[in-house]
């Protein structure tokens, strides 16, 4: 099993980055439809019509979200941890994705940039810049 660690700087307030991780309306703006998601421990979520699904296992508002993730025919979940921090008026999003099947690590690593955090960052920064 492989592990992925990434860090993103997002020019948007931490509360907006948090909402983009847990609010279905905002998730729908950057991708991943249809969606089932919220900020409660135990919630079973679905993204991309269930292609990605799992459960929230730890939620600390605007700081940390830990989820079990399944994709395809994975026999056991991988674990995704999002940690949010403020640094110089930007939000730092630290991502750790562990227990990824070895043959899928490269695709999933790139997928974070192309389909998840990349589009989310782009959406948030467009909105935030407009508000200034």
How would you summarize what this structure contains?
The mean pLDDT is 93. Strands 1-6-5-4-3-2 form a six-stranded antiparallel β-sheet, with helices on one face. It has helices spanning 14-22, 24-30, 105-131, and strands at 2-10, 44-47, 52-60, 64-71, 78-87, 90-100.
| Helix content estimate | 25-40%
| CATH fold category name | Alpha-D-Glucose-1,6-Bisphosphate, Chain A, domain 4
Average pLDDT over all residues? 93
Strand adjacency order, main sheet? 1-6-5-4-3-2
The poorly predicted ranges are none
At the first level of CATH, the class is: Alpha Beta
Q: What is the number of independent domains?
A: 1
The radius of gyration computed from the alpha-carbon positions, rounded to a whole number of angstroms, is: 14 Å
Task: Report the principal-axis shape.
Answer: globular
Strand content: 35-45%
How are the elements arranged and paired?
Layout: E1 2-10, H1 14-22, H2 24-30, E2 44-47, E3 52-60, E4 64-71, E5 78-87, E6 90-100, H3 105-131
Antiparallel strand pairs: 1-6, 2-3, 3-4, 4-5, 5-6
How does this model look, in words?
Strands 1-6-5-4-3-2 form a 6-stranded antiparallel sheet, covered by helices on one side. It has one domain (2-131): Alpha-D-Glucose-1,6-Bisphosphate, Chain A, domain 4 (2-Layer Sandwich). The mean pLDDT is 93. It is built from 3 helices and 6 strands, in the order E-H-H-E-E-E-E-E-H. The chain has 132 residues and is α+β, with helices and mostly antiparallel strands.
